[in-house]
């Protein structure tokens, strides 16, 4: 199955693109997205991804969320700032 990933902030910088498409097994979950990104950018990215949230459509989802062919997963890094 093919899934699109929308990458924000430091995850986008680590991968070098704001949108990528990945091929995953038919029974893939969001956790498989994490593994795919670590495979592409290296093990140091794992720590950041462990602090990220993931969204499909208008729902924030857990790592065990099953994916559907053609889904778009948004990878949302932690945000800080303000005064």
TrEMBL record:
It comes from the Bacteria. InterPro entries: Beta-grasp_dom_sf, Mopterin_synth/thiamin_S_b, ThiS/MoaD-like. Pfam families: ThiS (PF02597). This is ThiamineS protein.
